[in-house]
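Holo model, 2-acetamido-2-deoxy-beta-D-glucopyranose. Inputs:
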Amino acid sequence: MIKKPFLIFFFYFLVTVSGKKDDTCDEKPCDKGWKLFERPSGGWCIKIFYEDFIKKPSADLKCTSQNATLTSLQDQVESLYIAYTVSKKIAPGSGSIWIGASRTKACLNSTKTVACNWSNSFEWTDQSATGIEGLLWDRSGPDNAGRNQDCVVLQAASSGYVGTMQTGTLDDVGCYTDLDRTKTHPRKPVAYACGKKAKF
Ligand SMILES: *[C@@H]1O[C@H](CO)[C@@H](O)[C@H](O)[C@H]1NC(C)=O
Ligand SMILES: *[C@@H]1O[C@H](CO)[C@@H](O)[C@H](O)[C@H]1NC(C)=O
Ligand SMILES: *[C@@H]1O[C@H](CO)[C@@H](O)[C@H](O)[C@H]1NC(C)=O
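Output:
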């Protein structure tokens, strides 16, 4: 006897869901070309754009022109999606992808220490991701080498490694980057990932 109310509830659920679908016609939570991720803060759409040697401030502006911002990373599902999509596209090459994180005020002038460690040296700038699951650093980082590494890139390489750095890991770098001194640098910027709130 206990099953009947559940069935009725389920029936109304189906009607409600299909009704909603009819109202919105073919509208999707993300624009065409953007990929939907579910976050604790709600739906989030991510799109990767390719541009060799781009610097962080230009990537910021280009995301703004997409009504988006450089994306944070909620977790490893998101970072691996971005890293592997780019790795496949640029194969057999390698490079760096700009994402939306910046060094915290408290750690601006600090190398990696007990107080300024992997979990709190950077913060997400898009106000969307929560927590630190998206922070998978290369084993050296965030070391703030030269004390001017206030931005973050995600590594991409179809071979799985760029030098000793593994595809899908993060590294702290200068926002104007020291990675593009030569046009053949294996970690030169190749892409940036923008994110924006899903429509529903
Ligand atoms: C950005 O938003 C504005 C205002 O809603 C709209 O006119 C424009 O088409 C949007 N641009 C993109 C690339 O989505
Ligand atoms: C950063 O730290 C170095 C070494 O401790 C110090 O010489 C420098 O003045 C500091 N810079 C700022 C802006 O605090
Ligand atoms: C990182 O530093 C913060 C602030 O000092 C501290 O609360 C936290 O436990 C540290 N985390 C690790 C993993 O060392």
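Residues 1-22 have pLDDT under 50 and may be disordered. The longest strand covers residues 94-103.
Archived with the compound record.
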